[in-house]
Amino acid sequence: MTDWGTRAAVLLEELSRCSEPGLGVTRLPFTPEHRAAIDLLSERMEQAGLEVALDAAGTLIGRKEGPAGAGTFLMGSHQDSVREGGAYDGIMGVVLPLIALEKLKAGGTELPFSVEILAFADEEGVRFPTALIGSRALAGSFDPAVLEMTDRDGISLRDALSGFGLTPDGIGQLARGPGDVIGFLETHIEQGPVLEREDEAVGIVTAICGIERHQISVIGETGHAGTLPMEGRRDALVGAAALVTEVNRMARATPDLRATVGALTVEPNVVNAVPRAVRLTAEFRSPDDETRSLAGENLHRFAHALAQESRLQITCTRTYQQKAQPCAAELSECLKDASRHARTRALSLPSGATHDASAMADLCPVAMLFVRCRNGVSHTPEEFASASDMGVAIDVLAHFLKSVR
Ligand code: HGY
Ligand code: MN
Ligand code: MN
Asked: For ligand 3, a single-atom ion, which residues have Cβ within 5 Å?
């Protein structure tokens, strides 16, 4: 009897080694680590009888051909990680459906439609200040302007794609016709505490929160820390600290709003010089788009007022947004039936994290299956999902594929 969950755990462990050296997993898009991961996945997809291709946006596609004209069911998630992240976020959603197809093949099941397993290159938006490149390309919502965005080394997304052997200008032609696509199912580690608290291996996602990200620069004036009088200083870090405090205050005071300043750099960043420039990010998330966009507007208003009173130059630019996205009711019902078939409670829960499914919803009905996350921690090396929980998820996916129409 094959232990499908352990089979998944072993492949995920191998994939976790496709990473920059250091803590946890760091696998950014269009890097040698990305190449190593898709080489490993390509081999396993071919062994499972899938035809493998890499599209112009760097999405690895494993296709199992079904009867002509019967449509295609899409599954998958992102291959990229955050810096020093976990071994499950994203990549689990590529591996589990692949193992589910292996399980169906071993059981002699032929599906009445084609299936594609997608490994999107970039969902996290860690390397470039944009995200969901591959899923937006398939859904036809890719904005070519993002090709000019640069990473922290000044490499543009366009050059990173070309350097990876891809054709950036071909991304616009990747949009799928809605007629052929039956739906999209994303499997993902929960990244939160609910399933563990409810003692459930899997859960069905009701909706994916909306998100927006802002890049802020605060420019002041540097000087000697010992000789520059306190009076009249234009200390960029003092200004940035006021912004960080305000972002946090806003979220604490607003139901259904989460806000984070996750990245911050200081120049010249030395102990005995007054900070000249600070660059920081602010991120807002909410299941309610109105709440989220109001928070972004309030941030810009606060920054403008602070610039006036502090004589600092403060610029605030919204670089990314993704609307809140409910999952498709019919597809989710099908997933619930499959979960009951796998003897779970088919618990429903919202997602505070964003996912490729948000973008794919512009193309077709989407559903998401969550897998229990130990201690609810994610985006850290401690992120963990058990082989037995992944075995339950694979069972659900196999039942789901046999029943979806
Ligand atoms: O940030 C997120 O919610 C996702 O992990 N990219
Ligand atoms: Mn993810
Ligand atoms: Mn993530």
From this structure: 89
Q: Which helix (H) or strand (E) holds 402?
A: helix 387-403
Which architecture characterizes domain 210-322 according to CATH? 2-Layer Sandwich (3.30)
Distances (CA, A) of 12 to 139, 373, 395: 27, 15, 17
Find the helix or strand (DSSP H, E) in which 36 lies.
helix 32-47
> From CA 28, how far away is CA 126, in angstroms rounded?
7
CA-nearest residue for atom 6, ligand 1, is 124
> Quick check: 330 and 365 in contact, CB under 8 A?
yes
Ligand 3: centre distance to CA 52 (Å)? 25
Say if ligand 1 is within 6 A of residue 353 CB: yes
* Alpha carbon distance 205, 352 (integer Å): 10
What is the greatest pairwise CA distance in the chain?
79
Closest atom, ligand 1, to C-alpha of 285: 3
Does the pTM surpass 0.85? The reply is yes
Encoding tokens for residue 309?
Answer: 């009173």
Q: What is the pLDDT of residue 1?
A: 79
Q: State yes or no: pLDDT of 193 exceeds 80.
A: yes
Name the residue type at position 90.
Answer: G
Of 28, 82, 212, 213, the residue with max ligand 1 atoms within 8 A of its CB, to mutate for a pocket test, comes to: 82
Q: Is 308 exposed, middle or buried (0-12, 13-18, 19+ CB in 10 A)?
A: exposed
Atom of ligand 1 nearest to the CA of 191: 5
Cβ–ligand 1 contact at 124 (below 6 Å): yes
pLDDT, tens digit, for every residue of 284-313?
A: 999 999 999 999 999 999 999 999 999 999
Residue spans of beta strands (DSSP E) within 167-257: 181-189, 202-208, 210-219
Q: What is the mean pLDDT of residues 32-51?
A: 98
pLDDT for 329-352, tens place per residue? 999 999 999 999 988 999 999 999
Answer whether residue 265 shows pLDDT above 80. yes
Nearest CA to ligand 1 atom 3: 353
Residue 405 has pLDDT above 80, yes or no: no
4-208+326-403 maps to which CATH number? 3.40.630.10
Per-domain residue ranges of the chain: 4-208+326-403, 210-322
Please state the atom number of ligand 1 nearest to the C-alpha of residue 123. Answer: 6
Q: Classify the phi-psi angles of 199: left when phi > 0, otherwise alpha if psi is within -120 to 50, otherwise beta.
A: left
